[in-house]
Structure formats: C-alpha cells, structure tokens
Amino acid sequence: MRETLVLCLLLTALLSCGQPADEEHVNTLAWIVNDIDSGVVQPNRTGSTVFIQEKGINTSGTNPATLIAFSKTLKGIPYKYASSDPAAGFDCSGFITYVFNHFGIAVPRSSADFSDQGIPVTLDLSKPGDLILFTGTDSAIRTVGHMGIITYTGDSIVFIHSTSGKAAGVTETTLSPYYMERFIKVIRVFE
C-alpha cells in the first residue's frame, strides 16, 4: 500500500501537465513522502492533515465522547497491578481494556502492545479520545509502560488513567513536567 501511494505521488509529480517539477513541487512531494515513512499525522503545507493508518483498533460506531464519559464513571477505583476487574482495581492497561471492552472494542492487554497501534499524532494535534503513552516510572527506559485516554485538549492536556502514584487509582491528570519527561507519543484510535 505504502509503495503504491509513493509511486502514485511520484508519477503525478513527473506527469504534472508535462511541466518539469520545480523545487516547490519536489519539496512538497518529499514532505508528503516523509509523512508516509514516519506514519505520523502532521499538517502538510496546505494546512490539511495527512493520515496514514498502519495498524488499528476497530472503534467504528463508538463516539469518543461517550467512551470518555464512561471512563469518568470509574474514577476512584483503586490501582491494582495486572488487573482489569473494577471490583479489584485496575492497572493502567487494565483500565483501558475495561473501558474499550465495555463498547465491544478489542484492544491489547499490555500498555507496551499499544506501541504499534493506531495512528501516531503530534501532541499539539491530539484530541479527546486519543491514547497517550508514557514510559514506566523510570523515564530513562524509553519503552511504553504507562498509558491513559486524553479527555481534554486546549490550554492544557488532561488524561484519565489508573496510576500507582499518589492518587493510587483511576484519576484525571493534567500533563505536567513529570509526565512530559515520560511522554512517548499520542496515538489516534478513533476516526
């Protein structure tokens, strides 16, 4: 798929009205190809957005606002390592699993397994319903070890998650310098 799209873009550039490609067209084409290679959602030079779906979680038919509203009903449930049972408590990915499974959406059980899911988006383009991925408590180990659901974007970014920290359970947290040190990426799972 990726190769076909790149080939089509190159063919379009070469055949554009029989005109030789000027530097602006070549730069624009290179920029689009960079988007394809990275799989990251970014505004392109025209201000529109390029989406490249690599792997996905099937969320069709589910409204992110409805999912967020349900997730907020779980605030206060305690943290429990390796659990996705609200009667016992949740770890971070157990919370995500429970919330998404409530809507019939299958998701990986481990936070690390979300690394190659969805569409990566830049933090400034994130929106409610996107998943935010972090390292575990040791930010020097740059693998996903924690995650949450973004509930608000605007003057700040707020996410809901199950934490083993001070709140020790499901809570909403503003993206702080502490979490920015641990930040890995945001992934879009809703269309």
Describe the structure.
By secondary structure, the protein is of the alpha+beta class. It is built from 5 helices and 10 strands, in the order H-H-E-E-H-E-E-H-E-E-E-E-E-H-E. The protein has helices at residues 2-15, 23-38, 64-72, 92-102, 177-182; strands spanning 42-43, 49-50, 84-85, 89-90, 119-121, 131-135, 144-152, 158-163, 169-174, 183-188. The strands form 3 sheets. It has a 6-stranded antiparallel sheet. Strands 1-2 form a two-stranded antiparallel ribbon. Strands 3-4 form a two-stranded antiparallel sheet. A hairpin with an 8-residue loop joins strand 6 and strand 7 (144-152). Mean pLDDT is 81; it is low at 1-54.
